[in-house]
Design goal:
This protein has one domain: Response regulator (Rossmann fold). It is about 40% helix and about 20% strand. The protein contains five helices and five strands, in the order βαβαβαβαβα. Strands 2-1-3-4-5 form a five-stranded parallel β-sheet, sandwiched between helices. Helix 1 links the parallel strand 1 and strand 2. The radius of gyration is 14 Å and the shape is globular. It starts with 7 loop residues before the first strand and ends with a helix.
Length: about 130
Amino acid sequence: MNEEKKYKVLIVDDDKFLLDMYAMKFKNLGHDATVAVGANDALERLRGDMNPEIILLDIIMPTMDGLELLEVIRKENLAPNATIVMLTNETDPAKFEKAKSLRVNDYIVKATTIPSEVVSRVIDIVKTKTI
């Protein structure tokens, strides 16, 4: 039987309930999911020894939003090979364009996608990503 690859995932959001729920969904499939409560927590982990293969970023967060965080990740070349997906309820087309300009691999709206779909879609994105 062909064994599915397991990924190291970093989930960044300011909503602890959502963080725990998405982490559980990834862990139930055998992935190594770590949560970061907000951008500063994420930066601390990424500047440390964490090198995730997948990063899920919310946009709407206090202090530093997900797009500002993404700019720092790109500028500092943190997790350079990671697949980055915006997972947010932000539907402003300008924010979507900004995310695209920062080379996100996809943009998922939380309100229109159930958590199990989010996980399968993210894994599909990683599998089809061309570096």
